[in-house]
């Protein structure tokens, strides 16, 4: 059995153009994530679907369409679906227990947003000792404003992927992943 898991982070309707927080390139990222998921399933890898909820918030409200996983990357069969309330998918969830119970030692991260939940989850996985890979073109983000300076989604994504590649694991393309 494979010791690798794909973590599909927050590919929820809220990030699509009809949602409350649309991301640049979300459709292309989701299409690549679906390719990663299909390949992983064919190889016998575990696919773990992660969704964010903000009870009482304005976005990712439990029970709304925005909080649902997008149809492009729907879970299949009995794949685990984890609901989280923090950017780090390991924080106060059963994710680590699920991975450890399956003997997982390598995680592959795809999803949204590059600069928040993908970043937090990848760093946490690395800190917990998992071999970590992020599939950069299966992730999406948005422009970020800080103190009146706007960084484009492309620059935000590049900065985060560069930081992850520096010390937090491999950062590869979907095509590179599919060759494994």
From TrEMBL:
It is an enzyme of class 3 (hydrolase). GO terms for molecular function: hydrolase activity. The keyword Hydrolase applies. This is Cysteine hydrolase family protein. Residues 5-146 form the Isochorismatase-like domain. It comes from Paracoccus rhizosphaerae. The keyword Hydrolase applies. Gene3D superfamilies: Isochorismatase-like (3.40.50.850). Its EC number is 3.-.-.-. Keywords: Hydrolase. InterPro entries: Isochorismatase-like_dom, Isochorismatase-like_hydrls, Isochorismatase-like_sf.
């Amino acid at each position: 059995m494979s010791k690798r898991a794909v973590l599909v982070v927050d590919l929820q309707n809220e990030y699509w153009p009809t949602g409350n927080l649309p991301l640049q390139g979300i459709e292309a990222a989701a299409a690549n994530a679906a390719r990663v998921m299909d390949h992983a399933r064919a190889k016998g890898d575990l696919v773990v679907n992660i969704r964010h909820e903000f009870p009482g918030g304005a976005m990712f409200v439990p029970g709304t369409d925005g909080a649902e996983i997008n149809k492009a990357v729907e879970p299949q069969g009995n794949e685990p679906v984890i609901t989280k309330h923090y950017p780090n998918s390991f924080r106060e969830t059963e994710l680590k227990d699920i991975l450890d119970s399956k003997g997982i030692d390598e995680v592959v991260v795809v999803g949204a947003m590059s600069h928040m939940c993908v970043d937090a989850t990848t760093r946490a996985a690395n800190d917990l000792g998992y071999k970590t890979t992020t599939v950069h073109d299966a992730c999406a983000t948005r422009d970020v404003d800080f103190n009146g300076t706007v960084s484009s989604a492309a620059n935000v994504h590049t900065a985060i992927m560069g930081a992850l590649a520096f010390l937090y694991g491999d950062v590869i393309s979907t095509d590179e992943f599919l060759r494994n």
